[in-house]
């Protein structure tokens, strides 16, 4: 019985210390919804990829055919 009690007195604080060590301190620049530097860079690269795939302005000026199976309304 004494061995179990001694083990509990050692294991409980040790377990608590390990759990608390895993908790990170709150930083002032880690606001909810903010992105880390690597996330911000990935978002920037994704935005550049999307912008590079935009249609040229002359593609928007071409006449549009109606979708298959749909008739255009009479003017």
Automatic annotation (TrEMBL):
Record protein name field: Secreted protein
Q: Where is this region: Disordered?
A: 23-75
Per UniProt, the ranges with Low complexity bias are 23-52
Q: Which domain of life is it from?
A: Bacteria
Q: Where is the signal peptide?
A: 1-21
Q: Which PROSITE patterns match?
A: PROKAR_LIPOPROTEIN
Keyword terms, alphabetized:
Signal
């Amino acid at each position: 019985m004494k061995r179990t009690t001694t083990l509990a007195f050692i294991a409980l604080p040790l377990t608590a210390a390990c759990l608390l060590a895993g908790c990170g301190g709150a930083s002032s620049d880690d606001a909810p919804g903010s992105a880390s530097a690597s996330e911000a860079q990935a978002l920037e690269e994704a935005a550049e990829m999307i912008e590079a795939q935009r249609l040229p302005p002359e593609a928007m000026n071409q006449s549009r055919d109606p979708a298959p199976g749909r008739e255009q309304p009479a003017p």
